[in-house]
Design goal:
- The protein has 835 residues and is an alpha/beta fold.
- The protein contains 30 helices and 33 strands.
- The strands form eight sheets. The protein has an eight-stranded mixed beta sheet, with helices on both faces.
Length: 835
């Protein structure tokens, strides 16, 4: 076997610990290697282990979290051996494999390791699995590790696992793995001077970044690596720099996941003689890659991560401060080859607020792909699998439900044949389902092209176009043939066709909305008002107000920022209502809805998809449906909706007074007495009101009900007789008038009567079977209050003389005897009457 060629600049620090590492792996099946950036762990360790006795010509599989790192590290290792990539050392990334029959080191990524384990869990011919840059805690790495540990525990105890990391959460790793050897290597990093902002800046990120680049161009030498959170910021920063720098002196490059291979290679190559290179990169450039010539790093200090919300059923991209460990990784890029400088676009005080380590993707991301892998593994709920951070149960349950909606699993969560076909495609489960369902509709080639565009996130010349149909029309236009993004997508689509066994044919037209609805059934949306649309799962989103799609009734929304209460849509396509009805026939729900609208009971028959009403027509509700509607409306609006009138209100007051203050709460009469409080009446609407609602549909019919009779129907004949005896509605006073008694003053019923009508009355009138004297409001001839008493005898003796003189002066034509007890009562209060 060929020996490892040294790097032109000398040995790597990690070589010093190779004997210790070899020994640890010979005695243990798990090991952790911690080595800082530049130590050489990615490209030195795997070849150095090939001669180990315990490996015995078995393969090494090394998982890299990023495709560009996997490819470049494999190519570098092969170059150091004087070989072509694909001989002793090769790589497998999504839709690309450069390995041969003699390959002993395979660098893999993008779930390739998981796919290899799913294909044959024993990993025949493999002796070691390396998880490189594990501190990034990608969901692929966590999934692959959980499955590899399961294989090691139950099938292959001889399989060895090596965790390699530059800035790991060491305490968490040791807590998870237990007592395993931890080997630490020194680094090969030159000093890097670090500069912070002196005070916070309110300038836009791209402005701050461009200013920092210009400052570095003036003050420092060497190429510049700039870390930004995403492509949008890269584009805006590039635009500012193109207006400010001389292209004769500098070249601008972009380095991100959807850059073409040629663009990535150009960014990684040494700068042309006499020129400085400025690389605008996402987090893809943090690890595993040494970029020749870079000695200046400008770090925006933020990254973009996915934050999945179960409540909304979607992920929102949020920008968060990078961890201090990540910031150290980024700074290390400047000191790989010589002394460097790092400009951090945040203050030292802000630095204390950055988290120590990066949060694992498995905690925050959409788990649909993980759920599909777990279902394939036979452990839908991750039962028996070991994760450093287990998938959150609520998020995993949602992902399992999503798989079932896509048709991949049965009700128990077990993968069906369709789900197994989905998992054989290197796509997100949504796009796998879309592609396979498209075959049934003779749209397979169109689906391959759409999946390629969505997966690669490369939108040709119309990258900012909201209308996905318009983007496709750009792809299909012959003028886009020379567009690098478009050609990349076409190439990817052709690979998908081969993988799925679909004969190639040219795509001339495409129904984008129809295909997207298969992938995103819960994101079919119906227009509400303005630029607002409601998704089938319930969330409301807005689309750009200048989009031509704003007049469409139905859309399928793909990209959504669901971080706020009202989401913001970034991509959509039109779908026809009849297509929704046809496509989701088995998921449609037919329901009859009865509501109180415009003072009447109205019935609608609706066909619904999720929360969206697709079709509806009027129908005449049954009496039961109408009554249920009325009961809901009354409970929502209160008893004031019913017209009790004076008579009904007085009946309630009499009954409640009798129940509360007269009846013995322990006797049989009290136990069976109807309760007429608002709470009780609302709670028992169905018992006392329903018998009177037959045929009633309108408010005027409700108002015509004689509510006193409705209430009286709750009482037996004996109870009504008892009520009239104990709490009579009226009383006849000595003057001959029949006067109502008021029972709304607590335990003291009130009688308001003109004083002259009680002349000669010594005993106070009472109710409650004679036990409760009435509270009498003595009134003047003008019905104004003169006195209040509950003792008539005392009133005539003590109070009447006090009001007598005043009343004689004020009402001289009325009867005011000196002795009211001997005077005849009268309701004709004037002294002289015409005959």
């Amino acid at each position: 076997m060929k020996s490892i060629n040294k790097h032109p600049q000398g040995t790597f620090p990690v070589e010093e610990i190779l004997p210790e590492l070899l020994k640890a792996l010979s005695l243990n099946n798990r090991c952790i290697l911690i080595a800082p950036p530049g130590a050489g762990k990615t490209t030195i360790v795997p070849p150095a282990l090939l001669n180990a006795a315990w490996l015995v010509q078995k393969k090494i599989i090394m998982l890299e979290p990023r495709r560009i790192a996997a490819r470049r590290s494999a190519e570098f290792m092969a170059e150091c051996r004087g070989e072509r990539c694909g001989q002793t050392i090769g790589y497998r990334i999504r839709m690309e494999s450069v390995v041969g029959p003699e390959t002993l080191i395979e660098v893999v990524t993008e779930g390739v390791l998981t796919r290899m384990l799913q294909g044959d869990a024993e990993l025949p011919g493999t002796g070691l699995v390396i998880f490189d840059e594990y501190h990034e805690r990608s969901i692929h790495a966590d999934t692959g590790l959980a499955l590899a540990l399961d294989v090691q525990k139950n099938i292959r105890p001889d399989l060895k696992i090596l965790i390699m990391s530059a800035t790991p959460d060491k305490e968490k790793l040791l807590q998870f793995f237990g007592s395993v050897p931890v080997i630490e290597s020194g680094g090969k990093m030159f000093p890097v001077s670090t500069h912070y902002l002196t005070h916070p800046s309110d300038k836009r990120l791209e402005v701050r970044t461009a200013e920092a680049v210009m400052r570095a161009l003036r003050k420092d030498t060497g190429d510049i690596l700039v870390f930004l959170p995403g492509k949008a910021e890269i584009k805006r920063t590039r635009h500012l720099l193109e207006d400010a720098i001389h292209t004769d002196d500098c070249t601008l490059h972009e380095l991100h996941g959807s850059a073409t291979r040629a663009e990535q290679d150009a960014a990684l190559r040494p700068a042309e003689t006499g020129k400085r290179k400025i690389i605008l990169a996402t987090s893809i450039a943090e690890t595993s890659l040494t970029i020749d010539g870079v000695r200046v790093v400008i770090d925006s200090g933020v990254s973009r991560v996915s934050n999945f919300s179960v409540r909304r059923g979607m992920a929102g991209l949020i920008t968060v401060p990078v961890s201090r460990a990540t910031a150290d990784q980024r700074r290390g890029r400047a000191g790989r080859l010589e002394e460097g400088v790092c400009y951090r676009l945040w203050t030292r005080q802000d630095d204390m607020q950055h988290p120590e380590h990066t949060q694992p993707e498995i905690i925050t991301s959409d788990l649909t792909s993980l759920a599909l892998e777990l279902a394939q593994w036979g452990t839908p709920h991750a039962e028996g699998l070991a994760f450093p951070d287990p998938p959150p149960p609520e998020m995993l349950s949602y992902a399992i439900a999503t798989l079932h909606t896509l048709g991949a699993t049965d009700k128990s969560g077990r993968l069906n044949d369709f789900g197994k076909k989905m998992n054989r495609l290197p796509l997100h489960p949504r796009y796998s389902a879309m592609l396979l369902r498209a075959i049934e509709h003779n749209l397979a080639n169109e689906a391959c092209l759409l999946a390629a565009m969505l997966e690669e996130n490369s939108h040709g010349t119309n990258k900012n176009t909201f209308d996905l149909q318009e983007q496709f029309e750009t792809y299909l236009d012959s003028s886009s043939a020379n567009n690098r993004g478009a050609s990349h997508v076409f190439e990817y689509a052709h690979k998908l066709e081969k993988l799925a066994g679909i004969p190639h044919r040219s795509v001339k037209d495409i129904n984008t909305g129809f295909l997207l609805a298969i992938a995103y059934p819960e994101r079919v949306a119906k227009r509400q008002t303005g630029n607002k649309y409601q998704l089938a799962q319930g969330m409301v989103v807005t689309i750009p107000e200048d989009s031509r799609l704003m007049t469409e009734e139905y859309l399928v929304i793909t990209d959504v920022d669901g971080a706020s209460a009202v989401g913001k849509a970034f991509g959509a396509a039109v779908i026809d209502k009849e297509e929704i009805l046809s496509l989701f026939r088995e998921l449609l729900v037919n329901e009859e809805v009865v509501n109180w609208i415009d003072n009447a009971v109205r019935g609608k028959q609706r066909t619904k998809f999720g929360v969206l009403s697709l079709r509806e027509k009027d129908f005449n509700p049954t009496d039961t449906q109408a009554q249920e509607c009325l009961f809901r409306h009354i409970r929502a609006n209160g008893l004031s909706f019913l017209n009790f009138g004076t008579e009904g209100t007085r009946f309630i007051e009499r009954s409640e007074w009798c129940r509360l203050y007269v009846l013995n709460q322990g006797d049989e009469a009290a136990a069976g007495w109807p309760v007429l409080t608002p709470e009780a009446l609302l709670a028992t609407l169905e018992q006392w009101l329903a018998p009177f609602l037959a045929g009633i549909r309108k408010k005027k019919d409700i108002d015509a009900l004689h509510m006193a009779e409705v209430l009286q129907a709750m009482f037996s004949y004996e109870q009504l007789h008892m009520l009239d005896r104990l709490a009579p509605d009226t009383i006849t006073v000595p003057g001959g008038s029949r006067i109502q008694i008021h029972y709304n003053q607590g335990e003291k019923p009130l009688l308001a009567v003109r004083l002259q009508e009680l002349f000669g009355q010594i005993d106070t009138p009472s109710v409650g079977g004679g036990r409760v004297p009435l509270l009498i409001h003595m009134l003047s001839p003008a019905h104004r209050p003169l006195a209040i008493t509950q003792d008539l005898r005392s009133f005539w003796v003590n109070t009447y003389p006090e009001v007598l003189g005043q009343m004689r002066r004020k009402y001289p034509r009325h009867v005011w005897p000196d002795d009211p007890l001997s005077a005849a009562p009268t309701n004709k209060t004037k002294r002289f009457q015409k005959r």
